[in-house]
Amino acid sequence: MGFNVDLVAARGITASDLLATMNLEYTGHTEEEPESPVVGASLPSGWYILYFNDRTPPKETDLASLAGGAEVMQLDVSEAVGHSDAKCWMNGLMTWRILYEGAQRLAVTGHTPECFAEVEDRMRKKQASENDVDYVFNVPADVFAEITRFPYDGNPNGYPVASFDVLRRKKPHRKWWQLW
């Protein structure tokens, strides 16, 4: 079945501001593997990571608003359907996107990060030597991991944190008389 996750990484913004914008809050619980619907952690690389297992991806408008004074990256991976997509926002604008389109094709827009060419070259060389697996699928995720130092699947050496904070979505505030 494989991974089916969305990740958001941000730096240049506090964790509390990030969680508030994303309408998330701490539960007071932690876990060693990101298995709950939503977890978060401060990474040694200086990024704060949000790991969404619930397939309710963040809205791009929220990510762009976060990037007003921060750098924000998103990774969307669905191994079951062969989808991988990495995006980056800075100063409220999407600066680059790397989308795996299938059949060893990538759609690349914007000014890609320096590591992109090396990652793509490495995966294409691997592809040429082993044609039974589509290694190009990994390019968006590997670029995300190269920058944030966080592999979505924990490979090859596990996750770079001892534990993740379990988070939950805040319930909307309603007036006492609202039933919906």
Please describe what this structure looks like.
It is a single chain. With 180 residues, this protein is of the alpha+beta class. It has one domain: 2-Layer Sandwich (Alpha-Beta Plaits), CATH 3.30.70.1270. The chain is 22% helix and 36% strand. It is built from four helices and nine strands. Strands 2-9-3-4-1-5-6-7-8 form a nine-stranded antiparallel beta sheet, with helices on both faces. Helix 3 packs across helix 4. The model has no long low-confidence stretch (mean pLDDT 90).
Summary, kept brief:
Strands 2-9-3-4-1-5-6-7-8 form a 9-stranded antiparallel β-sheet, with helices on both faces. Helix content is 22%, strand content 36%.
Q: What gap, in angstroms, lies between the N and C termini?
A: 36 Å
Low-confidence spans: none
CATH architecture type: 2-Layer Sandwich
**What share of the residues does DSSP label as strand, in percent?**
35-45%
Q: What fold name goes in the CATH topology slot?
A: Alpha-Beta Plaits
Output the CATH homologous superfamily: Api92-like domains
CATH class: Alpha Beta
In which range does the helix fraction lie?
A: 10-25%
Number of helices: 4
Give a count of the beta strands, DSSP E runs of length 2 or more: 9
Assembly form of the protein: single chain
Integer-rounded radius of gyration: 17 Å
Structural class: alpha+beta
The overall pLDDT, averaged over residues, is 90
Structural shape: globular
